[in-house]
Specification:
The chain is of the alpha+beta class. It has 14 helices and eight strands.
Length: 471
C-alpha cells in the first residue's frame, strides 16, 4: 500500500482524511452474535473492560495481547477473526473511547487495516488463527507487495512470478512503493502463478515472511526527506503452500478485497489515533505502556449535559484561517473563496458519510463511494497545498528535514505550525497516486458504478504470456 502513517511530515494525514469529511462506510463484516443495542451500551462495555484491564505498567506486547484477544484491537473484524463484528461507526466509537480513556491504542499499520480484513474474508480458520491473531496483538507488522515498476495502475499486469516446488512456492521479481517495508515482518504478496491464462486469472495472493535471505528491501528517499516507501527485490524467496490466501490463481479477487479495504481506509480513516508501530523490528513491544499512552481526555458530555461543549481539536483548515487572519491575506477574496471551498468539500464528504450510513441501515450500499472518497481526499489535500502556500507566501520556501532544522526554523519564524503547511505541500503529490491513481478511481466509478463500457482490449481473453508488455 502507498499510504502515509499518521502524524508524518508534520501533518496527521489519517486525521486529515477524516477531517476532510470523507468518512465513508466500507463493506462491513458483521457477526451473527448479539451486540450492544445502543452506542451508550457499547461505550459502557468498553469503558468497563478498560477499567478492569488497562494497566500502564504492562509492556506494550502484554497490553496488546489483552486488547487483541478481547476483540477490541479491530472491533470491525468478525468474531471468529478476533473482532467484535461491529459496524464501522461502532468500531470508531470503540477506538475513540480507548484513546479518551488514556490507554494505548491498537497496533498501527497495514496489518490491521488491510491484511486482517483480507485474511478474515478469504482465509481458513487456521490461517486466521495464525496470521490475524499476530496482527491484532501486535506481534507482527505487515507491508503490501502489490505494485511493480511495470505494473502500478495496471496492477493485473504484474510480472513477479512464483513456481511451485514441492510444498513451497519459489518467488522471483521486484516490487516498489512498499510502505514501511523496512519495519515489516510479513508481506501481502500477489504474484503470477500461471502466465498461460488471461492476466487477471493467473494471480495468487500469498503471505510471505520478510525475514529471509531472498528478500532485499531498499528504502526510497522522498522529496520530503523521509523514506517511508521501499523497493523490494525477491530472489528465490520461499512461501509455504499453506500461506496462500484463497485459491491458487484466484488472487485477483482476494487482492480486490485488500484494495477495497485500502480505499475505504484512506477515505474514512481509523476514527482515532492508533497505537505504536507493531512487530519485531520497530522495537516497541518491550516498551512500557505508560510511556506510549496518550494523555487522558475527559469523555464527551452526554446529550443532557449541554452546558459546556467539549473543546474541539483544531483542524488544518482552522490553522489556515488563523494564518490568513494573522498575516492579512484573509482580505484577499480568492483566499476567502478557497477557504470556503475547502469547508464545502469537507461538508459534502460528511454528508456522503451520512448517506452511506443510512443506506447500510436499510441493507443497501452506494456503488463506488469508497472511490469517490479517495478522490475527495486527493482534492482536499491538493487544495490545502495550494491554499496554504498562497497564505504563507515566501515562508513556503522554508522546510525542515531534521529535528535540528525544525528547531532552528521554529526559533527563526516563531511559528511551529509552518511545517504543517510545507509538509502538506511536499506530500500532496502522493495521495492522487497511492492506493490507486485518481484516473483509476474515475475508471472504476465509470465502469462499476455508472455502467459505462470499458475500453476495448484483449486482456480478458489472451493469455498473459501473449500480451504485449504493459498492455
Amino acid at each position: 500500500m502507498r499510504t502515509p502513517p499518521e502524524s508524518l511530515y508534520g501533518l496527521d494525514f489519517g486525521l486529515a482524511a477524516r477531517r476532510s469529511g470523507t468518512q465513508l462506510e466500507e463493506t462491513e463484516m458483521t457477526s451473527t452474535e448479539s451486540r450492544p443495542q445502543t452506542s451508550e451500551d457499547l461505550i459502557i462495555e468498553v469503558r468497563s473492560w478498560l477499567e478492569e484491564n488497562w494497566d500502564p505498567a504492562l509492556a506494550i506486547e502484554q497490553w496488546w495481547e489483552r486488547l487483541g484477544s478481547a476483540g477490541w484491537s479491530s472491533a470491525l473484524l468478525p468474531e471468529n477473526a478476533y473482532g467484535r463484528g461491529l459496524s464501522r461507526s461502532e468500531a470508531v466509537a470503540v477506538s475513540r473511547e480507548i484513546t479518551s480513556f488514556g490507554a494505548v491504542g491498537p497496533p498501527s499499520g497495514l496489518g490491521l487495516m488491510l491484511a486482517a480484513p483480507t485474511i478474515a474474508t478469504h482465509g481458513t480458520q487456521e490461517q486466521i488463527d495464525l496470521y490475524v491473531r499476530e496482527i491484532v496483538t501486535g506481534k507482527k507488522a505487515w507491508c503490501q507487495l502489490f505494485s511493480e515498476p511495470g505494473a502500478g495502475s495496471d496492477l493485473a499486469g504484474l510480472s513477479a512470478r512464483a513456481e511451485l516446488d514441492g510444498d513451497e512456492w519459489i518467488v522471483n521479481g521486484q516490487k516498489v512503493w512498499t510502505s514501511l517495508g523496512q519495519s515489516a515482518d510479513m508481506g501481502m504478496l500477489i504474484v503470477r502463478t500461471n502466465p498461460d491464462v488471461p492476466k487477471h486469472q493467473g494471480i495468487t495472493w500469498m503471505a510471505i515472511d520478510m525475514h529471509q535471505p531472498g528478500v532485499e528491501i531498499r528504502p526510497l528517499i522522498e522529496m520530503t526527506g523521509h523514506a517511508m516507501f521501499n523497493e523490494v527485490f525477491l530472489t528465490d524467496a520461499r512461501v509455504p503452500v499453506n500461506a496462500v490466501i484463497g485459491d491458487v490463481g484466484q488472487g485477483w479477487a482476494v487482492a480486490n478485497t485488500t484494495l477495497q479495504a485500502e480505499r475505504s481506509g484512506l477515505s474514512a480513516g481509523a476514527g482515532a489515533a492508533a497505537g505504536p508501530t507493531p512487530g519485531t523490528i520497530a522495537g516497541n513491544l518491550k516498551a512500557t505502556a505508560r510511556d506510549m499512552a496518550p494523555k487522558k481526555r475527559e469523555p464527551a458530555p452526554k446529550a443532557d449535559e449541554t452546558e459546556s461543549k467539549p473543546k474541539k481539536r483544531k483542524t488544518q483548515r482552522s490553522h489556515l484561517v488563523d494564518f490568513a487572519v494573522n498575516n492579512g491575506t484573509i482580505s484577499d477574496p480568492l483566499i476567502r473563496q478557497d477557504l470556503a471551498r475547502l469547508h464545502t468539500l469537507q461538508a459534502i464528504g460528511g454528508y456522503n458519510s451520512q448517506r452511506v450510513k443510512a443506506e447500510k441501515q436499510q441493507g443497501r450500499d452506494i456503488a463506488g463511494m469508497a472511490n469517490i472518497g479517495k478522490l475527495m481526499m486527493s482534492d482536499v489535500v491538493r487544495l490545502q497545498r495550494d491554499l496554504g502556500l498562497r497564505i504563507i507566501g515566501p515562508f513556503g520556501m522554508l522546510h525542515a528535514y531534521t529535528d535540528e532544522q525544525r528547531d532552528a526554523l521554529n526559533e527563526a519564524t516563531g511559528n511551529p505550525f509552518l511545517p504543517m503547511v510545507t509538509g502538506t505541500a511536499l506530500y500532496a503529490q502522493a495521495p492522487p497516486i497511492y492506493g490507486g491513481t485518481d484516473q483509476i478511481q474515475r475508471n472504476i466509478i465509470g465502469e462499476r458504478a455508472l455502467g459505462l463500457p470499458k475500453e476495448p482490449n484483449q486482456d480478458k481473453v489472451l493469455p498473459f504470456a501473449e500480451l504485449p508488455k504493459n498492455a
